[in-house]
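Researcher: Go.
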Amino acid sequence: MMSKVKYEVIQKFKDVQDNGKVYQKGDRYPKPLNKKVSEERLNELASTSNKLGQPVIKIIGE
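Model: Structure:
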C-alpha cells in the first residue's frame, strides 16, 4: 500500500524519470498526486543524493 505522505517541491527541478517534467518551488510532488513513485526515488529527491546535490522535495504531512 502506498503511503499517504505528501511532498512539496522546495527547489525547481526537472524530473528525468518523468519525461523531463518540470516542477516549480511550491508544487506538490508528484503530479498527478496519485502517480506511483518509488520510496527510493522519494528518498533520493528529499536528500543530497540526486543530480542537483541538494534536496528538491520535503515532507509536508500525511
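Model: The chain has a mean pLDDT of 92.
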